[in-house]
Amino acid sequence: MKKVLLGLFTAAMVTACAPHTAGVMAGSNGAVRVDNTSFGKEVQVTNIMARPEGGFLRGTGTIASQVSTDLRLQYKFTWFDLNGMTIDDEGVSWKSLKLHGKQQMQVSAVAPNATATRFELYVRKAFSN
Fold it and tell me: What is the Cβ-side half-sphere exposure of residue 80, based on CA atoms within 13 angstroms?
């Protein structure tokens, strides 16, 4: 009985936390993933481009609001090498961004080292505690 209650409690906690971390991902390889459909209707990530810059890869993308109200967001770039392994993902933090109604903003970052071959741009809703 204890195991059943513990399992239900764990499932409830995981479900309750899901909207705070789920968002939208767009990759330089053309992949797009929407983990939260209601958030996916509020924000769009477009114009994903990767270009070399001084021996490193620079990634850019446009984050666009699809609603008329202000949005407080966070975004981060995750870089991958030729083998698909993440590069220095622990050292990259989420950056804050505020978009006013229907506003769009271009964001960019440079790869942490020269072995990066692609990136993914993640966007999520920012929640204050």
Answer: 12
DSSP code for 89: G
Element housing 120 (H / E): strand 118-125
| Neighbour count for residue 57 (Cβ, 10 Å) | 21
Q: Are 101 and 65 in contact (CB under 8 A)?
A: yes
- End-to-end C-alpha distance for the chain, whole angstroms: 34
Query: What tens digit of pLDDT does each residue of 75-84 get?
Result: 999 999 999 9
- pLDDT tens figures, 8-51: 344 444 344 443 457 999 999 999 999 999 999 999 999 999 99
**Distance (Å, rounded) from C-alpha 80 to C-alpha 69?**
34
